[in-house]
Amino acid sequence: MSASNVKTKHSLIVTTPSDLEIVLTRVFDAPRRLVFEAMSKPEHIMRWWGPRGTTFSACEMDFRPGGAWRFVTNACGAEVVFKGVYMEIVPPERLVSTECFDDPSVGSPEWTSTVTFEEHDGQTTLTSRVLHKSIENRNGHLGSGMEKGAGETFDRLSELLERMA
How many whole angstroms separate alpha carbon 24 and alpha carbon 12? Predict the structure, then answer.
């Protein structure tokens, strides 16, 4: 097998370039149009979004600028709700939306997520830049176990992309 046919295992990289940001970067062995499709259609999102064992009871998406989205999941026996509004959609290059972990016990903090897709040699680098309104919210997000959950989520996305290819 030639080196170009060898699949590599890519890992999630999480950085904090400022007091308000979290940047998640992952390379996928798929063209960006496919990665973008997997992130923009409910029938795909319900198969990969969330850590292993996550199931959906609702995946509502009005996929247009100004359109709202809402995901109701069950993870580890608890209902978890995320929601937001799409601000910018540039297929297959960029998605910008607000996001909120809808839980009054933690104040339901909202953040802005900017996801970019860059393709090189059939692989797509997905970069998600999460911008919080305060350092406390950013640190709360980091302390929530999000890095492990995001790692599992992107592993599930990678597995789905292999089946979609």
Answer: 7
- This prediction has a pTM of 0.91
pLDDT in tens, 57-73: 999 999 999 999 999 99
- Cβ–Cβ under 8 Å, residues 13 and 26: yes
Lookup: tokens for 64: 């247009």
Q: Is residue 2 part of a domain?
A: no
Write the DSSP symbol of residue 62: -
Domain contains 42: yes
Backbone phi, psi, residue 163, to 5°: -70, -30
Range of the domain at 20: 9-164
Total number of domains in the chain: 1
The CATH code of the domain that includes 72 is 3.30.530.20
CA distance 67 to 108: 19
**DSSP letter assigned to residue 6:** -
DSSP string, 88-116: EEETTTEEEEEEEE--GGGT--EEEEEEE
Residue 132 DSSP one-character state: -
